[in-house]
Amino acid sequence: MTLGEALAFARGKIDRLDARLLLQHATGCTHADLLARPETPVMAPAFDQFAEWVERRAGDEPLAYLVGEAEFRGRVFQVSPDVLIPRPETEVLIDLALDKLGGRQSPAVVDLGTGSGIVAISLALECPAATVSAVDLSAGALAVARNNAGRLGARVAFHEGDWFAPLAGQRFDLIVSNPPYVAEGDPHLELNGLPHEPRMALTDREPGGNGLACIRRIVAAAADHLNPGGWLLFEHGYDQGAASRNLLTAAGFQSAFTHPDLAGIDRVSGAHL
């Protein structure tokens, strides 16, 4: 079996780019190797791994879970089925957070529902003056996040628990979150590999709800954990901007706004005390 024959094996089963990336991970070869030396032999164990991945990818299992990693903001984060796969639109949340942190001497930041840690770790690395904490209910997710922080050299204090529960008595200058916001029963939950991602990170699991249950809890408790002038920023669904602003205003926050992602879709809402 050669590199060229291995790619031919995957043809028609999965996307060409996915096949190339999986073969590179299975064999350790580069894209240049595939182009210049397709006759290079593939060891049997490497081909067996590649063939298994091809079948699983054909079954809609996400590429990131197969290879165990995904890129976000130019950094490689390890991922597992315990955490959501990083999405580019979450960069909007980080960019807005960095903007709100600008000019603060030593701000305290917390990321609620940290998952793989992409938000907390990115903020810790890109705003070194900040003291960053992160919370998640899932022990499996926290294990992934701690590993990512260690690999990338980010100083983040991790806490296991339900939203603000592990943060009694603590106050922050910025609270950020990418909470579950897909309504339970939404048909999108059965598409595009989402059945393989952790359901508790996607939806609040509230039967007949509108996906806002977690956002409501965060907004309701945030003021008790913010310093004067502190900001709350959170990611949400494409149709939840107005409802998010209403929740913020009703909770006594000022200057509630919604910001779109690069596709022009409402993505992040926030306000300050």
UniProtKB/TrEMBL annotation:
Residues 13-68 form the Release factor glutamine methyltransferase N-terminal domain. It comes from Dechloromonas hankyongensis. The keyword Transferase applies. PANTHER family: HEMK METHYLTRANSFERASE, MTRF1L RELEASE FACTOR GLUTAMINE METHYLTRANSFERASE. Keywords: Methyltransferase, S-adenosyl-L-methionine, Transferase. This is Release factor glutamine methyltransferase. Methylates the class 1 translation termination release factors RF1/PrfA and RF2/PrfB on the glutamine residue of the universally conserved GGQ motif. The gene is prmC. SUPFAM superfamilies: S-adenosyl-L-methionine-dependent methyltransferases. GO terms for biological process: methylation.
